[in-house]
User: What shape does this take?
Amino acid sequence: MISLAGRDILHSWGKFVLTGIGLGLLIGVTLSMAGIYRGMVDDAQALLDNSGADLWVVQQDTQGPYAESSSLRDDVVRSVLGLPGVVRAANVTYLTMQVRLSQGQGKVREGHEVRAMIVGFEPGQPGEPGYLVAGRHITRSHYEAVADVRTGFALGDRIRIRRHDYTVVGLTQRMVSSGGDPMVFIPLKDAQEAQFLKDNDAILNDRARTAANPALNRPGVPGLLEAIQASQAANHNVNAVLVQVRPGVPAESVAEPIRRWKHLEAYTRAQMEEILVAKLIATSARQIAMFLVILAVVSAAIVAFIIYTMTLGKIREIAVLKLIGTRNRIIAGMILQQALGLGLIGFIVGKVAATLWAPIFPKYVLLEPGDAVRGLAAVMLICALASTLAIRAALKVDPAAAIGG
Amino acid sequence: MKIPSNLRRRLGLGLLGVILIVALVYVVMRSGPLAPVRVTVTQATVGSLSPSLFGIGTVEARRAYLIGPTAAGRVSKVLVDVGDLVQAGQLLAEMDPVDLDERVAALEASIARAGSAIAAAQAQQRDAQARSELAAITARRYVELGAQKFMSAGAVEAKQQEQASAEAALASADANLAAARQDTQRLAAERAGLRQQRDNVRLLAPANGVVISREAEVGSTVVAGQAVLRLIEPTSLWIRVRLDQGRSAGLVEGLPASIVLRSNPSARLSGKVARVEATSDSITEERLALVSMDTPPAGLSTGELAEVTLALPATAPAVLLPNPAIRRQADQVGVWRLEGGGLRFAPVRIGQTSLDGQAQVLEGLKAGDEVVVYSEKELSADSRIKVVDALTSSQP
Assistant: This one.
């Protein structure tokens, strides 16, 4: 028995394939939108994974360091290290800012600027980039940086952060902030300075202001003013302490004494994920999710209409088939097979398109195989449902229409 | 009609097939967790490292002088300005002496007067001397005359008493003269003291140097110990370098140093560690070393930032690895070894590291072992990997 659907497709294969490709691009957009949503969540997860911490110790009553600002003294880490169950603990600072290539390197990309999260970390401690794709780890205690490849910086580039130039010595990948900004890792002391040191004008103004205060600038006490000004310029704050807990020790059992006796806040991995996913990116993620739902509905409607109009376009041929006594089951099978074929082509085209254009997106797009399988099922289901609409129309055709016109 | 239809069928099927294959290839190769992780590998080599220490520091003067008065007062003269070269002993500034000059003049007058008193005492002494001599002669004559019974005993005794009185008067005059002389000495000493005080308000350079700040102007009042001028010895400039405690192993006096000043990043200056401070900073967790420059450049300013690299002697040959190969798994440090196409995490012990990113492996690895250097993502023992030459296209 010949395949009626195959014959019909061969009859107008160009139209069929083009429709399939068009449908595929639409499915591709839907899959990409799902990928963008997954990417957002994955960015948040990547941030937590890359910090290498089991516990985040932050300022009391804050949800830092990612969702809120948090400020701690940098000697807190020593008292945390003394707690039972703690393997490693390290200070870390986070600061999101514009980073640009330094002037006068004679590079074509001069002035290249990127929004990045500056991470101040201690080498060999939690918070350092776990793996590199090029270059080496930081070996000097100052003025070296490891950048994410997404920043667009190359090895050997000199980048400007506040008042110092840093040499990019290593590149890493998928090190992003919860907002998807690529990270630049620099030594902790430099980062503390970058974060808390004021600009020169502000420093000069502050000095003048202190000097103008008669209580701080007493004629009878030489050296008092200098001492006060030196203490104003010094900074010993960090944003968080990353703690690695001994394997087998529950993180909560370490967090509890920190909260109770150190008067600090401590978050476990699960709590941090909750803060990031449920609070920090909640609105933007819901925004994307809403759009994804609308896009899925629209795509489904369009797929249904395409199959319906395709069938209506063949109404005369169907009438002829009925006239020659073809059974309804065969006609319905033809329409269903065509619809499913169209859906399959559309899905493959969409998957390929989404995979192809995913890396071009400025932020991470995560195409999960699970999403693809769900997408395939949804497409097939929609096509089957849409074909029932078309089948109803086809079965109602009066065979006389074939000759009556 | 039949042949083109067949041809078109084949074309159509072929096109669909190609799309399918391409799609499958992409889905498998490129997307998500199914794709193998691309890594680069290297072989552990045996070699020796030239480790170095890196720190930043500021240019400081080894000897700096704070020139100020020892007592509160008003500045009356400032004779030098910032940047002036001064010689040891040169007058730099002067405090207002207030009444010191007048007190010296008063003392001078007192001394002159004391001189007159000495003269008067000397005259009195001479007078007493003369009287005493006369009284002695007279008394002697009366005694002789008394012995020959020409004089009454009473008259002789009277003259003897006169002689004793005259001698007492002479002793008194001697004492007066001595007192007048002591008075003069006292006044002279007082005058010398005042002159020293007068000199003390003159602020002199203690050594050859350059004036780096002028902190009080004529007419301003300063307290004891407050600076009017600051001097440094420009030949004594060195760099106070701060090195991370965790990366300061091997820091000793005499290590050769390579210095880059912030004002001239392209020039490397040579020097050596002149001193390692016995105490280190517990707050910043840094050690302090002082590095002297072999030839300090002209126009060097104190407070300037400098990057200092100290070269340590080369280590004994050991297994070396680039530092990106060293990973952490839970609480272990190790490397991912490539064994029979699979990955195995091998704990290692790391020794010294060099600034160019080479690390000594003391235990856990032997030369020729293949280990993963770079990877696209965090690895685990069951990661599927694909070995490539480089992960980024732009190698410098």
Q: What stands out?
A: Chain A has a mean pLDDT of 85. Residues 61-197+235-262 of chain A form one domain. DSSP finds 13 helices and twelve strands in chain A. Chain A touches chain B through 53 residues (CB under 8 Å).
